[in-house]
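Predict structure. Input: G-protein coupled receptors family 1 profile domain-containing protein, 348 residues.
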Amino acid sequence: MESRFHAMRYVLLASLAGSDILFLILGNSPSIASIAQERWLYGETMCKLHYLVLRYFYLNTVLHLVAVSYERYNAIVKSPLTYDSSITRSKVVVIVLIWTVPVLVCTITFFNHGGTLLYYPKLFFCKAATDAPAFHAPAPLIVFVVPISIIFFLNWRLLKTVNAIQSNDQPVVLLESTAASSNNGPSQHQQNEARRIKDRKAAVDVCIIIAAFVICFLPEWTDFVLRNYFMVEFPPEVTQTTRCIYYISSVTNPIIYSVRKREFRGGVKRTLKRIGGLCAVLFPSGTDNAVGAHGLRQTPTGIPSIVESRAAQVAQQKDSLDSRTLNVPKRIEMNFQGCHHPTEEIAE
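Output follows.
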């Protein structure tokens, strides 16, 4: 809705936020409800689908983090002077692949298991049988180790470059020389400095997001590897705890956005205001949009002003007194209609 957010970095973060919301609804909610009730509540079919949903959103989140890390690496380390953050057709294809590739991987994994997804009553959870062929292959390790290694490498280079730029020790990004040759004077230099500060903050934000995900997922992954590769038996409470820590990862990103990104907070507030205005237009209350239920002009907050409210109360009391005065003859007519004429009674 705002043109200044139409950049690849913001689109990837918004896509990641959408993935977190779906993971919270489709993945976390059934698990938390089943753990609370100490039994699976949604049937055998949903239990198997839930396993695939968890694997899908894990891969989806990892691919988002890889894409965000590479986008920042490309913008700051690889080609800072020529990088274009605008949305192109190829970048749209990348986003589509981020959402579709996990579907293929989960489907192949499911058929590789031969459909051997079993319910484990101590964990209130369906998972692949430990004697399935996939557990004797390095695929689960590759799915975690390879993308996390890529993410760490890209962000290590990113932070190294940003710190070097901040201390003016690395000549790989010669923004000042470009500013001197453009004859723009100090204004161009100030723009470059502002861009450096912005890039550094963006790099730190990405690193915080990735660190939060790794910290939340590492206990779950460690428990998974030890149980399935080294046949280490943990109490069910340990596995449930590691899973709950992993589920928290879907809540960390909104917290990071709200704390670290002022522009995101402002964008969300403006979007909510626009949605509220649109709802007022589409679903009017039957009166003028600027007039309340009692004919009062609404303030920007939707509350009638105190002065107008007091004036309305006085006018209402006056109307009530006038109505009582006008109704006196009617009451007299009702009370004395059978005895005297109303005018005679009033004269008396």
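The two ends are 77 Å apart (CA to CA).
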